[in-house]
Structures are given as structure tokens and as C-alpha cells.
Design a protein that fits this description.
Layout (H helix, E strand, L loop, with lengths): L7 H6 L10 H4 L19 H20 L4 H12 L6 H4 L5 H15 L8 H9 L8 H21 L4 E3 L2 E3 L1 H15 L8 H16 L3 H17 L20 H16 L22 H23 L7 H13 L10 H23 L16 H12 L5 H4 L4 H8 L4
Antiparallel strand pairs: 1-2
Length: 417
């Protein structure tokens, strides 16, 4: 659900904004403009309080813009931007107990693996148990860095309360600081890219997205995409095995879906424009059911990709594009339909979210009519979407929806109708 504040265009023009996406002012502009909400929200109070935050957020936006076609160079720029968000000296000495990391990884294993089915929790736990927190070993700290990033994302996604340890209170933000300290000290992220460093960037993206730090969240997911391209993970058959990962072939599809979904949420174009080939990624019969579920979700984004691309073209999307995409989304069958899990809920929520976006575009194009033959072009289409979603989620409980995040379920989904 769009933030209830003025969009970037209305702020720059100093005009009234209704806070929708796209807003009425941008829709009614003579020259087509892109309605975005990328400017950091300013806090009320003296200007001296806002200066540090605005200065820290701005470099992340510059890195994001330059990140698209220069993978190796952009990684180095992103790393320099990250140093601006380092914690204070007072918090830099705090240690993260191994037992705390293990307990949160267990939460990931229980609740969040269905959403991010790429990390082998048992292997990761066995490795962090054997590592001294202050050990000056690059490989060891690489594992700890991955674990802290995963735990930060898991705490943010599951809304886990701050944990009290012998070294102080630890929340998801402190875990992010610990991850960045280790990454800057032990790992040259711009020169040595591997599966683990890519997933560190991904989990940092998740944390910042949940904290509504949009510039940083977009920077980290684009950083992960750029690293994946350096390793050629976007090419089928180029994946290498890593014992910490459950499904290495799913690393790039997870990044592709995540960037597309987040860019769509912000009204931006993704940095990676190539389509994803699902047919070449079909899992064998031995693959776990959650891996199959991620591919099913990717199929939704592949079907929606046409309309997303056409929206950015000079001619824009047509009525045929809207109706064809709706027919494709409605015709897709979910092979896990009988499984009650967070992945199944995520699939149904995402599909209805996409159908709602299609209807919103039809509305903005003035195509709606009470006598339209296609249901997506009628005024009552949102009611049908809401009914379909509630019907699909009727057997789910709060625990099933917990890994999706309470704000995502309540605002992004039900808040649309």
C-alpha cells in the first residue's frame, strides 16, 4: 500500500499530492512522468537531526543508479557507500553470541525456509558452532557474516523481539552492523564474489526492505544481482555446489523474483532486464517441495513480465496486453495447491496482487466499463480478486502467514481492496 505522503514529483513541484500510486497529479500531467516515493521521509524537528540521515541515504541512491551495467565496478562503489552506515564506536565492540545465531537460524529453518529455500540450516549451524567469533580467518568470518545477515533478515521478517544476551541486547539492526563490520574487515566484497557474499547482500536487502529503507534495500538487491552476473549464475548450468546451500540452482531465480517484486512495489525498473527461462530450471523429482514452490512463484513473474516491460515502453501497455496477462495469471495452476504453507500463501497473495495492478492500469487508461466483456475491464473486478484471495487462504492460520511478514499481508494484500 503506497505511503501516505507526497510523491517525489509533487515535492519537487511543491504541489498537493493525494499519496496514491500513481498519484492524481502525476496521472494528470501533460507530459508523462514517473510517480515514485524514493526520497527518504523526513522527521519533524530541528534540521540538525535530519542532516546525518539524509547524507547517509543519498550515496545509496547514487550507487543504485550506476549499478546497472558495470557489475565489478559497482560492487566497489556499493562497498564505499556501506561504510557510511557503520555503527558508532560504542556499539562496535558488541559481540554476537554463537548460541543466539544458532537459535535464529533454527527459526529460519522452521518458518522462513519455505520463502528462501536456499540455505542448509543444519550445515550452517554446524559451521558457526566451530568458529570463534574473534578468529582472524577470512573463510570462517565469511560464514559468520552469512549467518548474521540471515539472522537479521529472519528477525525483521518474523518480527522477532530484541534478544538479551550476556553482551547486551541484540536486535536485527545490531546484527546488520555486525555483518557489515565483518564484511568490511575480512572480505574484499568487490573483488572476491561467491555464493555466500551474494546471499549476504540478499539478506541485507530483506532487512532494509522490512525497515522501509528503500534506497539501501534497492542497492543491496542490485548488488546481489550484479554479483550473480559476475559468477554467471543467470546462465543455466553455471552453478557450482556449495555445502551451505540447499539449492544452488535457485539462487538466481530467487534474486530475479525479489528484485522484480521490489522494483514493482516502488514503481521502478529492475536492473536485470532479461527474462527468466523457467523451462530450463524445472526441478527433478528429488527436489524439496519448497524449491518447487519457488519456481511456481517465478512462473507468475514470468507471466507478468510482459505487461511490466510494456508499461515502460514508449507506447505503453495496450488492452490486449492487460487481458492476455490476466488470462495467463488466472490459468496458471499451482502444483502445491493442497499444501498449507507460507510458500502457498505467498503464491496466492502475489497472484492477486498482480491482478490488482493490472486492474489499476486499466482504470488509469480509462478502459473500465460496466458492459465490458473481459472481467478485468469491469468496475467490480477488485471484488472478485478479493473473493478469490480469501477463498484461497481460508485454511491458513496466523502461523502459516508469519514468514511473509505481518505488514506485507495486511497492507500489500488486504489493504488493496
Amino acid at each position: 500500500m503506497p505511503p501516505k505522503r507526497a510523491c517525489d514529483i509533487c515535492i519537487s513541484r511543491k504541489v498537493k499530492c493525494n499519496g496514491s500510486w500513481p498519484c492524481d497529479t502525476c496521472l494528470g500531467a501533460v507530459k508523462k512522468v514517473q510517480c515514485t516515493y524514493l526520497r527518504p521521509a523526513r522527521r519533524r524537528g530541528p534540521k540538525s537531526r535530519r542532516t546525518c540521515r539524509e547524507d547517509a541515504d543519498q550515496p545509496a541512491l547514487r550507487v543504485s543508479d550506476e549499478h546497472r551495467d558495470q557489475a565489478s565496478e559497482s560492487m566497489a562503489k556499493a562497498e564505499r557507500a556501506i561504510t557510511l552506515s557503520q555503527p558508532t564506536e560504542a556499539s562496535s565492540t558488541q559481540r554476537i553470541p554463537t548460541a543466539l545465531l544458532e537459535s535464529i537460524v533454527r527459526l529460519y529453518q522452521r518458518y522462513s525456509y519455505s520463502i528462501w529455500p536456499v540455505i542448509n540450516a543444519e550445515v550452517l549451524i554446524s559451521k558457526i558452532k566451530d568458529i570463534e567469533a574473534d578468529q582472524d580467518d577470512h573463510h570462517a568470518q565469511n560464514i559468520v557474516c552469512l549467518a548474521t545477515a540471515l539472522c537479521a533478515a529472519t528477525m525483521a521478517q518474523l518480527h522477532v523481539e530484541p534478544q538479551i544476551t550476556e553482551f547486551g541486547t541484540v536486535d536485527s539492526t545490531e546484527l546488520v552492523h555486525a555483518c557489515l563490520r565483518r564484511r568490511n574487515k575480512f572480505h574484499d566484497h568487490g573483488e572476491h564474489i561467491d555464493f555466500r557474499s551474494i546471499m549476504v547482500s540478499f539478506f541485507l536487502h530483506v532487512h532494509h526492505a522490512k525497515a522501509n529503507q528503500r534506497n539501501s534495500a534497492m542497492m543491496y538487491i542490485q548488488e546481489a544481482i550484479a554479483g550473480a552476473r559476475v559468477l554467471r549464475l543467470d546462465e543455466v548450468g553455471s552453478q557450482k555446489q556449495d555445502e551451505v546451500f540447499s539449492n544452488t540452482a535457485l539462487v538466481f531465480p530467487l534474486l530475479w523474483v525479489s528484485e522484480r517484486g521490489y522494483a514493482l512495489h516502488l514503481g521502478l525498473s529492475p536492473s536485470y532486464h532479461e527474462p527468466l527461462s523457467i523451462t530450463e530450471l524445472e526441478m527433478d523429482n528429488d527436489a524439496d517441495v519448497e524449491a518447487q514452490g519457488l519456481l511456481e512463484l517465478a512462473k507468475l513473474f514470468v507471466a507478468f513480465d510482459r505487461i511490466a516491460v510494456r508499461r515502460k515502453s514508449p507506447t505503453g501497455a495496450t488492452t490486449v496486453d492487460l487481458t492476455d496477462t490476466e488470462n495467463k495469471l488466472s490459468s496458471l495452476s499451482f502444483c502445491m495447491a493442497d499444501l498449507v504453507s507460507a510458500r502457498t500463501a505467498d503464491y496466492h497473495i502475489t497472484r492477486q496482487w498482480m491482478r490488482t495492478i493490472l486492474w489499476q492500469h486499466a482504470l488509469s487508461m480509462g478502459l473500465l466499463s460496466s458492459a465490458a466483456y473481459e472481467t478485468i475491464l469491469t468496475f467490480g473486478f477488485p471484488v472478485q480478486v478479493g473473493r478469490d484471495l480469501l477463498q484461497a487462504l481460508r485454511w491458513f492460520c496466523e502461523t502459516d502467514l508469519l514468514p511473509l511478514g505481518r505488514d506485507q499481508v495486511s497492507e500489500t494484500t488486504f489493504g488493496e481492496y
